[in-house]
Every structure is written in C-alpha cells, then in structure tokens.
C-alpha cells in the first residue's frame, strides 16, 4: 500500500500538486462511473474557518474525475444545516455549479451489519454509486482527538442518527469501533486529506485555525491516518481510531512517499503528559464537561436537539451532568462557540 505526502502551504498550489498525485490513481476510475466525492461539510462555515474541506481540493478532484469521463456527485450529511446551505457557505456549491456537478444530501438510509456493530444505516446514495472518494479535513476533535479519513465516513450516516450512535457506543473506544465499521462498509476507493489549513485545540468546529501544509493521498484510509498521526509525533495509542484499527489488524503495511512533519495542539479533553500514577488517578476524577456560555448562546437549540441523552435544557442554559456522557456533540455543533469544556470533579 502507498501513502503519498506532499507539502503544500497555499491552496493556490493545490492544482499542480494534487493533480500529479491523482494521476497515480487514474486506473481506479473508468468512463461512466458514478463517483461520490465525500468532503467534510460539517456546518455552514466559510473556508477561512477551516471547519470544512476547502473548495480548491474539491475543484481539483472533480476536474480530474470529469477529465476521466466519470460522473461525479458531491455529498455529505452535515451536522448543522442543510447540505445546500453548507455547500454554499463553504464555497463548494460555487465549484459544483461551475462544473455542473450535483450536490446531494446523504439521506434515505439502508441498513447494513458491520463487523462489530449491527444495523448501521448508511445513505442509499453512498452504496448505489460505483465508488466513494473520501476528502477529509485535518482537524482535532474533542471526543475522538483527531478527525481524519476514518472519522470522515461517519457522515455517510444520515442526519440526526449520528447523535444516537454516541449513546449506543458509550465509550470513545467503542465509538472508534463504530467509525471503523462504517469506514469498512463505505470502503472509499481513494482518500485525499486536506491538511493544508486545518484546526488544532478544541476542534472540530471551535478550535484554532492552523497552517499544517499537507496534502495526503492513499487508497487506504487506515494507512493514511496512521501515517499522519506518526508524522504529527502523536502516540498511536492516543488516537482511538488508530489504536483500534491497529488492534483490529486493519492497518496494512505501507510505504510512505514524500516527507512532512507537523505539530498540533490536542484538545483540552486529552492529557498527553505522562504523569505519576497517583496524580493520574486523581486526574481521572477531573473530567471536562460542557458548560453553556450565556453571553454567547443565542438559543438556537441545536445542541439541545443533538444531545443523544437529552442532557441540555436551553431554557435554563443548564447541562445535567448526571446524564451527560461527554460525547461533546454539543460543543461540535454549536454555531456560536458558546459551549466551553470546563473541568469538573466527579
Ligand atoms: S449553546 Fe450554542 S447550540 Fe446551544 S442553543 Fe446556545 S448557541 Fe445554540
Ligand atoms: S451535554 Fe453535550 S457532551 Fe453531554 S451528552 Fe449531551 S451532547 Fe454529549
């Protein structure tokens, strides 16, 4: 298996660099194929916020597919807002309109059994195409620590069904197993990571924008994620999806072509410093919980609707910490950055 890294510090350089890499994979596509391009279209945010896959990446991929005679479509199931709104604000709609490529909401689910989880409902539009090109964004994630190729295919589960999975999975490790099962079902033919400008800190929506300067491409999402995590100097055991994919023997041997090293500030929900056992034991009793910032909150109720355990009451702006399972979905979906992750002793 091959993983390609290319250093790329400006989106203006994407066409030259990415087209060369994509040409390596032209054998994967044939004229007339229907290929779904699956970016990270989490919520209606401008490209400068680094929440969504940059439209330049989508443009180059679509042009490559169209040149091959492929019939591409672009789709996702955003956590916040309709696909049309998210595509418009993120700049993806403009690209699609110019190239006459349809944008679709990943809805209308069909049920499948994964290896560990049963009854996983994926959008019909994902399974009825000839292949999926997965285009994740390099970002931190308050629950899963990083979001890369494997996490990005979770968007193939329609709408609010995604929140319910946090409750069903329970722990972050179990949730990683679900993400892996979904990724195995979606089985992208190609993964193209937008790591030019991404996010660090408390991502995936409300962290800090950061220039990473990376484009990474591989047919295998597990290999790609593993290579990126290593090049960021992060312990493999810290990233749940990478840890579980190694334990499940899903990371194939791969050769890395190209050099890139990066640094990233991880979310405040993770402790990366090795601590004496007594202090670590004490710290396990200190957890990060969501707290609503009353000055910022506009009462849109998105967090209340998306909380899988109904732990949020927006009338009082309070979170029921007895119910809260600390999935941080509320923090992820809040469009106003009005949810802080604060320490609490349990
Ligand atoms: S905390 Fe955020 S998502 Fe929740 S109601 Fe307030 S503004 Fe909306
Ligand atoms: S309050 Fe937030 S972190 Fe807690 S369960 Fe609900 S969505 Fe998850």
Secondary-structure element order, N to C:
EHEHEHHEEEHEEEHHHEEHHEHEHEEHE
The CATH topology of the largest domain turns out to be: Rossmann fold
Largest sheet: 10 strands, mixed
Query: Helix/strand/pairing class, anyone?
Result: alpha/beta
Radius of gyration: 19 Å
Point out poorly predicted stretches. Answer: none
The amount of beta strand, in percent, is: 15-25%
- What is the highest CATH level, the class of the largest domain? Alpha Beta
Q: Structurally, how many domains make up the residues?
A: 2
Give the end-to-end Cα distance, rounded to a whole number of Å.
45 Å
**Overall geometric form:** globular
Residue share in helix: 25-40%
Mean pLDDT: 95
Which ligands occur here? Answer: iron/sulfur cluster
- CATH architecture assignment name of the largest domain: 3-Layer(aba) Sandwich
β-strand number: 16
CATH H-level superfamily of the largest domain: LarA, N-terminal domain
Number of helices: 13
């Amino acid at each position: 298996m091959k993983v390609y890294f290319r250093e790329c510090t400006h989106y203006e350089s994407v066409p030259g660099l990415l087209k060369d890499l994509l040409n390596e994979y032209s054998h994967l596509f044939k004229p007339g194929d229907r290929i779904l391009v699956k970016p990270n279209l989490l919520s209606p945010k401008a490209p400068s916020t680094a929440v969504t896959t940059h439209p330049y990446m989508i443009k180059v991929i679509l042009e490559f597919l169209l040149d091959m005679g492929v019939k591409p479509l672009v789709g996702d199931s955003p956590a916040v807002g309709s696909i049309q709104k998210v595509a418009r604000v993120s700049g993806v709609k403009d690209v699609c309109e110019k190239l006459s490529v349809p944008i679709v909401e990943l809805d209308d689910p069909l049920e499948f059994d994964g290896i560990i989880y049963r009854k996983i409902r994926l959008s019909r539009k994902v399974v009825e195409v000839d292949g999926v090109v997965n285009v994740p964004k390099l970002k931190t994630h308050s629950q899963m620590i990083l979001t890369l190729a494997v996490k990005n295919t979770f968007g193939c589960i329609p709408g609010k069904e995604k929140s319910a999975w946090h409750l069903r999975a329970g722990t972050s490790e179990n949730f990683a197993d679900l993400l892996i099962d979904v990724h195995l079902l979606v089985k992208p033919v190609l993964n193209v990571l937008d790591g030019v400008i991404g996010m660090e800190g408390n991502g995936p929506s409300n962290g800090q924008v950061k220039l990473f300067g990376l484009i990474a491409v591989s047919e295998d999402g597990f290999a790609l994620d593993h290579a990126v995590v290593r090049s960021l100097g992060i312990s493999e055991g810290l990233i749940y999806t990478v840890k579980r994919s190694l334990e499940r023997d899903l990371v194939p041997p791969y050769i890395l072509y190209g050099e890139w090293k990066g640094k990233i500030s991880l979310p405040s929900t993770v402790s990366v410093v090795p601590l004496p056992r007594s202090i670590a034991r004490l710290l396990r009793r200190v957890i990060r919980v969501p707290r609503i910032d009353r000055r910022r909150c506009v009462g849109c109720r998105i967090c209340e609707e998306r909380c899988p355990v109904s732990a949020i009451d927006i009338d009082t702006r309070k979170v029921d910490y007895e119910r809260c399972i600390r999935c941080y979905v509320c923090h992820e979906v809040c469009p106003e950055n009005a949810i802080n992750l604060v320490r609490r002793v349990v």
